[in-house]
Amino acid sequence: MNQATNRGGNRAPRKKKKKRSFAAVILAIVLAAVLCLAGLIAVVYASGIRYIKVNVTEDLYVKFLGKVDENGKPYKGRLIYSDGVSADVNLDREEISYSNGDVYTGGLDNLLKNGEGQIIYANGDTYVGTFANDLISGTGTYTYVSGDVYVGMFEDGVKSGTGTYTFADGSVYEGEFANDKKNGSGEYRYASGDVYIGSYTDDMKNGSGIYTWKNGDVYEGAYVNDVRSGIGTYTWASGESYTGEFKDNILSGAGTYSWPSGRVYKGYFENGIIIRAETP
Q1: CA 194, 200, 203 angle in degrees (round to 5)?
Q2: How distant, in Å, are the alpha carbons of 106, 217, 278 from that of 207?
């Protein structure tokens, strides 16, 4: 009798192979994918490729994807700014080219322009000097495509502190700046030969100052929004002088007019004209 047959003449049942569960198959696939991804990440990391994001402020961030050097600083790759501007980093050429046409040469710290550097703007302007947190800050030279040149201090991208601004026509202002404008004390030497020494507010003469014309006339006194207004003294090259009130660059109000001969007039002026003498 065949041993594979039991006493009843039937074959002995065979053991069924265990089937893998669906969950086990999925787990195996996921595990394999994770291992492949980990291997890929390891290869990418070993090649020096990094993804870096720096939050500058609550609203501003910078991202970098590309190769870094041995110190972990961007070497080759792409910068992406939250305002939509991007830049190609290639330190083989020692430059960073921005999508808006600007080109920067210098150091990066935390993905931001920091330290000494140079930037050539798309419009032709050039700046050479120091940067801080991606902005012009510190001391440097800004050359405008118009031919104007500013040498001095900057803060957060604007002229701030002391500096010298030379205009294309040869005029020169040397003094204090704030909020990108002449603010504070300074000296303006005009190309015409005139000279103003005094105070400024938002690029206009305000407060006290001395204006000397090339022809020898001199005004010393108060200014309001770039015009002679208030109390001052105007001395003509001829020797005549007026001390008193001004309005919109004109003798207006009480004042004293003197001639080289010794003659003196005290009274009231309107639109530069004597209207009545002061009663003794």
Answers
A1: 85
A2: 42, 20, 28
Q: Helix, strand or coil for residue 36?
A: helix
Contacts of 173 (CB under 8 A, 6+ apart): 164, 165, 167, 182, 186, 187, 188, 189
Burial class (CB in 10 A: 0-12, 13-18, 19+), 15: exposed
Position of tokens 């550097």? 117
Cα separations in angstroms, 68 against 41, 81, 109, 113, 163: 15, 18, 12, 16, 38
Q: What is the Cα–Cα distance from 229 to 250, expressed in whole angstroms?
A: 8
Nearest-CA neighbor of 81 among 102, 67, 95?
102
Q: Is 25 helix (H, G, I), strand (E, B) or coil?
A: helix
Question: Per residue in 4-17, pLDDT tens?
Answer: 444 445 555 555 55
Q: Buried b vs exposed e over 65-81: b needs ≥16 C-beta within 10 Å?
A: ebebeeeebbbbbebbb
Query: 152-176 pLDDT, tens per residue?
Result: 999 999 999 999 999 999 999 999 9
